[in-house]
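re: ur question from yesterday

yeah so i grabbed the chain u mentioned. its 161 aa long if i counted rite. heres the sequnce exactly as i have it in my notes:
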Amino acid sequence: MLDMAGGSLNTDLINSFFIDNNYTDYFTVQETIYELVEQKMISNNSEAKENDSATTNYDLTEDGRKTLSLMSDRITAGILQDLTDYFSKNKLEIKENQELSSSYDASLNGGFIVHLSMGDKGDRKMDISIKVPSEEMAKTIVFNWKSHFDKTYESIIDSLT
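ran it thru and got these structure tokens back, copy pasting raw so excuse formatting
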């Protein structure tokens, strides 16, 4: 699924595919995601939301991509068709999830690293990582990114040209 998406997918998108198609239940999806992260087949990062909760985005790692290539013949045509249908039906939500991305994680040396990215029609226009001293500041930046990304991009371009 992450390979076909060509970018990050959040927890809600992953859950809805597996649950809506009756492949499995919510708890099995969560357990499988946890195991794939632990085995470093997929990576995860959290994104703050307006109500101070967080959503998690997942990406396929290089190890995950290699493993998938060895097992791709085990994915049935029916599952591939379900994935194609799902991506077609949910393309706007998936695009929005991938075009603007903001997340943060703890830094090994203290503080937090905020990751901000912006794309346009599949073309990555900007990726920024910023170290901040507190989780509260990281959450604020992540939350504000979706409403200020265009001004931030313009400001950076204007400052550097």
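noticed a couple things. The beta strands are 9-10, 42-48, 54-60, 100-106, 112-120, 123-132. also The first helix runs from residue 2 to 5.
anyway ttyl
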